[in-house]
Amino acid sequence: MRGAVPALLAALALCAVAAGCGRAGGTPAQQVSAWASQSGIVGLDQTIAFDVHGVQGSEAEGKLLTTKTVCYALYDDVSQAYVELPSPDPKLTNLLNLSDLALSQGSNDCSSALGGTENKTLFERALSESDQGSAELTAATSRLAGFGVQTTGTT
Question: With a cut of 50, which residues of the chain have pLDDT below it?
Answer without folding.
Answer: 7-22
